[in-house]
Amino acid sequence: xxxxxxxxxxxxxxxxxxxxxxxxxxxxxxxxxxxxxxxxxxxxxxxxxxxxxxxxxxxxxxxxxxxxxxxxxxxxxxxxxxxxxxxxxxxxxxxxxxxxxxxxxxxxxxxxxxxxxxxxxxxxxxxxxxxxxxxxxxxxxxxxxxxxxxxxxxxxxxxxxxxxxxxx
Length: 168
Known about the structure:
This is DUF6584 family protein. It holds the Pfam family DUF6584. Keywords: Membrane, Transmembrane, Transmembrane helix. By secondary structure, the protein is mainly alpha-helical. It has two domains: 3-135, Serine Threonine Protein Phosphatase 5, Tetratricopeptide repeat (Alpha Horseshoe); 137-168. It is 67% helix and 0% strand. The protein is built from eight helices and no strands. Helix 1 packs antiparallel against helix 2 and helix 6 crosses helix 7 (100-117). The model is unreliable at 129-136 (pLDDT under 50).
């Protein structure tokens, strides 16, 4: 569906009070057009309807007229430069941004991320949120690993038991 048609549907959804549907459409558009600043602004406006300042700040981060409280909420949620870089979901070089402010913001985040991970990064090869920025494993990571280990051990036990039964 063309961009213009989808934006018309977003307007219709918002007028009808279907805010979640409008948000989902805009998220899809921003995913398809990650460097479109007006789309990011529209998505931030929808997150304001949800009273989600961190997400509004995320999508307004590249705008000079952004709300400082929303920016602070975004930076509190995404504490490290690698996390912010991934959250901004930009693609391509900073020069693709249409405003000087956005280019400066993108360059600052990329430079901070490069410093945090110890090597140069760019917007198309963002670092992982984990481990490269010094973060350790989470309890969820541990439980997932433990579950995989148990599954492998169970498979091996069944396999060995089958071999023993085969040769008895």
